[in-house]
# Entry
Amino acid sequence: MKKNILGCAVAVALCQASAASAGGLWLNTLGDFSGGRAGAGAAAGLDDAATILHNPASATRIKGQQLYVSGGALIPDVEFKTRYSNERLGYKNGGDAGVVAPLGNGAYVWDLGSEKWSGGIYFTGLAGAGLEYDKDWVGRHQATDVELLVAAVAPTIAYQLTDKLSVGASAQYWYANLDLKLKVPREDPDA
# Structure
């Protein structure tokens, strides 16, 4: 009887719902080739080297060697509109805060001189941002300078089991760096 009561108590405790709250950056897309298609078909394999980020087994579909390189520039126009403020914070919108940033990714796949084995490596800048507001803008206590970089390197190996089935593995190494600068509020705004 005691075991049944204890079991019911544990089951009820595990089924309790609780709220979880968090804050932070939300990056919902990757900066690779599939972003232009909203990720559709990214893992299906498009017979190019870039597919190995989403589907390592697709490397077996490439015979010989293949290099994929993509690049670009992000040229943002970021302006903040001030609706409500006060004398202490001021009314400046910070100007154009956008910072020009390079974009790029690349992949290299080779068949390792084998009918069944293939290997590759993928490098990409997955996400990033750059903002540089004027030092006296109304939101200076939230951010004045922001630099974000998220990049990944993914070495890949794949083996073709049959003409319709391949398996692959990839060890993805992700690097992320966020540098955020802000002005600390002071009691004397002129100090």
